[in-house]
Predict the 3D structure of the following.
Amino acid sequence: MLWHSTIAGFKAYLKLERSLSDNSISNYLRDVGKLDNYFHQILEIEKTIGSVSIDDLQGFIKWINEIGLSARSQARIISGIKSFFKYLILEDLIKVDPSELLESPRLGRKLPDTLSIDEVDSLINAIDRSNAQGERNLAILETLYGCGLRVTELTTMQLSEIFWEEGFVRIIGKGDKQRLVPIGGKALKQLKIYINEVRVHQTIQKGFEDFVFLNRRGKSLTRVMIFTIIKQLAEKIGLEKNISPHTFRHSFATHLVEGGADLRAVQEMLGHESITTTEIYTHLDRSFLKQVILDHHPWGNK
């Protein structure tokens, strides 16, 4: 089995069957490419894919550790290698998966920063609504917090995908996967104000007619611009937290879970492929957890 042709087949599998984004596919191929290079350039041996053993893979893991890759980078590479060999098993190209017993380094789970409801309100109240950009920026923050969108999902949001009567927006997420996201009342109201009172007066560049959020030149906003808007508001209110558009997504999810929302529902709204990704939002404030126990456990207040 030749590495080049097999990796090409793996690429087609990732694209057609798993519907991954180009960026994700590139990462997987880069990980498998590292293994190929390890055999041919570091060990200087001709190693067929079918002859790779668990000992070979453990030697590879030892090598990427020795060259100084972080535990997180090592874990990602191991995940890519495991996916590659699972593909080979699926296609009946090998009979035994040598990566099955391969272990990833333990990672400390980094809990995302979140904003309190008061902090969200303070940021929103700091927006200068005396100009057109202010109404747009308010709609941006209301949508980020009200829908839990990724920043790219926000910048590519389309007018034609908003279902006003039903209160939903169709979003194209990672891997071109579509999902329907509910829009809260405040976000829906501010979107209507921005679209009907501000955006309608703009000269829109060709090709950008369906984008919801536009810059002054009538083109879609960049990710960097969204970051800048949020950073400036944080500075304006003296917020010491290092926040980004993703902080609003984290806060959206955390506040839902704290309010008692079903984790599966939150998973659907966030567009997470796995429930384990959503489970990070079960990190609840200790005082909140204590109060839940006191309020709901039969012996809580005894």
User: Anything to note?
Assistant: The chain has two domains: 3-90, 117-291. The radius of gyration is 24 Å. Strands lie at 162-163, 168-172, 178-182.
